[in-house]
Design goal:
Radius of gyration: 18 Å
Number of domains: 1
Number of helices: 12
Helix content: 25-40%
Mean pLDDT: 86
CATH architecture: Orthogonal Bundle
Bound molecules: 2-acetamido-2-deoxy-beta-D-glucopyranose
Length: 307
Amino acid sequence: MGRARAAAFLLLALLAAAAAAVEGRRQPEGGENACAKGWQCSGSRFCCDGTITDYFKAHHFEELFPRRNDSIAHAVGFWSYQAFIAAAALFEPRGFGTTGGEQMGVKEVAAFLGHVGARTSCGYFYPNPVAWGLCYNREMSPDQNYYCDDSNELYRCVEGVRYYGRGALPVYWNYNYGIIGKGINQDLLSHPELLEQNATIAFEAAIWRWMTPVKRRQPSPHDVSVGNWKPTKSDTLSKRYPGFGATMNIIYGDHICGRGFVGEMDFTLSHYQHYLDLMGVGREHSGDNLDCADQVAFNPSSENSDS
Ligand SMILES: *[C@@H]1O[C@H](CO)[C@@H](O)[C@H](O)[C@H]1NC(C)=O
Ligand SMILES: *[C@@H]1O[C@H](CO)[C@@H](O)[C@H](O)[C@H]1NC(C)=O
């Protein structure tokens, strides 16, 4: 799968995120029940309102990612259910997987992990390609001068540090490491390797990306997943409607969307639907507007031409 194209994904998606520091904290229904439901959210006053662990158990994780320790996998033993849950717990108070009841929670987690599974898969050419998510935690053959954009003054490349793709929704380029690091309180600009050394931080970075709009007045993938987003007239004219397709539009823009039924779009969508089946909700509840084949990108790559 084209690495150069993959390289540009988050570049596009994150260029403007610095300004959009998001505080989409929404109070859950049900008030302030203090509770300590265990390691995943102890001390949180939100956890009694339902958590991801209510419907997404360790065995689900094993079923979604059964080949991640295979002999051809490249991150054997790295990814774990505990890491995902620990990272998710930081974002559950903002509604990640906890908005709108259990079925909506399952759908959001399946959608998020669908993106992750497709981006970290090594099964593109194997039978049952949807079984190979979490095979990678880093780009294997980095090129592109290690993705250093010297012109970015806010997030200058650190001497000797390389910004090739790493993580669960792979991060590329100094400025994306900078923005995301700021978002999750880790110095990823100096230590991008954290995303290939610590699975909790890798999931945190990916969920932060999921929860954070690229620009003001644009939805985050989370907003789209839970029905928080109402398309504007300009969205409608650009064929952007609420649904899984719009989450691909936000994350990959015209690298996947607006190009007809390209392989990488189908690949991502099939992970989402496969995971919905495995999590017991079923692909018949995938929702409308699943593809982005004829959507215009929220942020066209021509506007961010330094890729
Ligand atoms: C993969 O390896 C981890 C760590 O060794 C282990 O906990 C997990 O059960 C394994 N899962 C699969 C599907 O092989
Ligand atoms: C990984 O990062 C998390 C979150 O910052 C931290 O709590 C944990 O100790 C780290 N794990 C390792 C093995 O360094």
